[in-house]
Structure formats: C-alpha cells, structure tokens
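Quick start: what a row looks like.
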Amino acid sequence: MNVPLLDLSRQHRAIETELREAFNAVLRHGKFILGPEVAEFEKEVAPHCGAKHAISCASGSDALLLALMAFEIGPGDEVITTPYSFFATASCIARVGAKAVFADISLDDYNLDPEEVKKRITPRTKAILPVHLYGQAADMTPWLSEAKRRGIRVIEDAAQAIGASDLGRPVGGFGDLGCFSFFPSKNLGGFGDGGLLTAHDDALAEKLRVLRVHGAKPKYHHHLLGVNSRLDTIQAALLRVKLRHLDGWASARARNAALYTKLFVEAGLAAKPSARASGASEEDDRKPILLPETRRTRHVFNQFVIRTRALEMRDRLRAHLQKAGVGTEIYYPVPLHLQKCFAAWGYQAGDLPRAEKAAASTLALPIFPELTEREIRDVVETIAAFV
C-alpha cells in the first residue's frame, strides 16, 4: 500500500492541456512581470474571497507582511493572533517590529478562541490576525464589531482557506484585509510561491499595489518604502486555469472528509463530531481518535486533522502509518509562542495549554481531491489495526 499525503500529479494530469495552453500564451507574449494574466486573475479571484479588490504578490508570507506595512504597524504596537499556525503568521509581526500577543485556541476547530481574543485587547492593540486554519473559517463574530468600534484593524490569514465561508460569507471578506497563499499544497496551488491580498477599500488596495513594487508610482518615483513582491505572470496564468476547478476540488475534499468520518465512527475509533458537540457519552470519551469539528462553516479541508486522545499515541501512530506507506504530517509540532526566535516575547511552556495540546496530539491524513475510496479505507483500516 502507498497512500501519499499529497499527489499533485493526479490533479495536473486531468487539466494538462489547459495548463499547457495557458503557459504557451505567456511564452508567446513575453510579458513575464505583471502581464495581462495577473490583472485578469485578480479580477476573477476577488469574488471567491468576498472582496472588491484582489492584489496579488509573491507569497502568502509577503501578503501578511504587506498587510502590516499598509497599516504602518511597528514598534510599540501589539497584534493579537494564534500560537497554533504556520511560522509566517507571527514572523511577519516580528519583522515590522511589533509584538505578537498570542491567544489560546479552541480544540474543536483549532482556531482562535473568541473569548481569549477579547481578553487580550488593550490600548496597544493595533490589529487582530485570526487564522482560518486547515480550511475552516475562524469564529470572528464575538469580537469583530468590538474591534471595528475601537479602530483595531482585522487582517485575516486565509492562506489555507480559499473558498471557505462562515454563514455564507467567504473568508477574506470579513476584515480590513485578507491574506492568501498559492503554495503548491494549497487548495488553489501554483507551480511555485504566490500570494494574494483582498480588500474592500479603494485607497487601501491602491496602497498595496504600490507597496508591492518598491513603493513606486510611477516607475522610479518612490513615495513609499515598499518591497519587491509580485506574482509572476506565468503563475497567474496557471492559477486562472486551476481557479475554474476550485469549487469541484473543494467538494471532493468534503466528500473525502465525510467518508473518513463515517469509517472512523463505524470502526469504533471515534465519536461523531456532532455527538461530541452536544455532550459526549462515557463511551465516546474512551474512543482513541477525535475527528475535526465542523461548525456552521463551509470547511474546504486543506488538511484533514485528527487528534489522538492520548498524547503519547500520536508519534507511534505516525510511525506505524509511515511503515505501512501512508503519508502524514504534523501541523505544527512546536507552537509559535515556544519557538526560540520569539523568546524575547516572554512566553513559557504552559502559557497556552490548548495550543500546546494540539501540537502534541494532532496528525494530518491524506485528503487531496483525487484520493480514492479504497485509499481512504486503507488509511482507516491501518489506523484501526494499530489501535
């Protein structure tokens, strides 16, 4: 048995003719930097993110950095965010000289706990940076209006969640800015790095377009101190092709997640997430695997992440799956508040216990759209044999 964590070749084989045609069009016109496909892609992707403007850039990490630069956040400022995310969520804050104030997560969806966010708002808070982790929208409703009332900027890290929504509203359209990534493993993945910001405000969108080209408008006239962060024309052309298939791929991921849930429950390995939400029985509390909890959102399952009830079980389970040929990943083994490079912020082990528990007990299983039913059954049967 060999079930990879991700196999992009299956996806690309199905649309290879479309991709080659898009590549050849760019090759013919030769406008490799900010060519016509970039503007077309920005226009086409904005509605998927519930925004008026889409501003592409070189990576999801750059999108976060540009967002903070646009709001002139820097030394002495605080940004509330999650400790359980990819490194860039916090590194962009450090790079502008501000301080990340970490709030703990909910273990149901691994996103920021709204009550923990509200507790950490101070006069120094200049922005709140929620992450829509693993493809599910964070619950922002309890604190969003308060942030806007106090003039606190809201920057959404939606790197893993393009197409996700909460109560019918797409991620990237809730806050002042949304930030997306087109890293190849994302639901809408490029053939290298790429990123995007979304905005409602015309002036803010224009500022970002200037910041991404060294702060110059017109060329060689620099009114802002910007960076070099542009989406390559070839990337935009290929992403335009893949954007046409995004909703279908998201539906396939959701079907795969539903099958995983069904098989885990039938095997007696886990309780239904809905049963857990309504109050688990004593029997449910003994089941070894905890499945992803889906709230009222449209979850696009960039990852399918299970959690082992016993912390010491996760690493042994992963080793067993690896030996059986099943690809897995641990997102994220060291929470951000415990990363050595952020030691100056003064966090210690035990400060954010739910994030630390997630880091020690979660495991991502294969979930890509082209995964077959037989492969999913093999994964669950392999886990059942281990248990």
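That is the whole record. The chain has a mean pLDDT of 96. Residues 8-243 form a domain with the Aspartate Aminotransferase; domain 2 fold (CATH 3.40.640.10).
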